[in-house]
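Progress report, Aim 2. The chain analyzed during this reporting quarter is listed below.
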Amino acid sequence: MIDYSIRIEAPAEIVFGMLTEADLLTEWMAREATIDRRPGGEFRWVYENGDVVLGRFVEIDAPHRLVLAYGWEEPASRGIPPNSTEVEITLEEAEGATLLRVVHRGLPPAEVESHKGGWDFFLRRLAARLAEAAA
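Predicted structure tokens for the chain:
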């Protein structure tokens, strides 16, 4: 399991949009994205290296909480099929910023460190992108 938190200098509503709107997700995480933002709706995004994430929205409580069923379109290389792990993201406003916490459950033990590194890398990019926009 991964339990990762980061402070982002932007309101929760803006952070939530960056996580759930395809045109905004492509500003910091993916080169292309398709998102059907509703419970049961599917999402798919393609990273710069061509890897593809595929899953669906399980719960949406805008702008406070998201639960995603998450996996990889080509699971053979990682052993993580689409919809096979759970990502819970909570957003809590604090003094004009947002405390973002991601808990990623169900990963194979061999994948925990690489996914932790991925969450760290991309959420830092999100924080930098929003800091840039505020400047």
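The first strand starts at residue 2 and ends at 8. The beta strands are 2-8, 32-35, 42-46, 52-61, 65-72, 85-94, 97-105. These observations will guide the mutagenesis work planned for the next reporting period.
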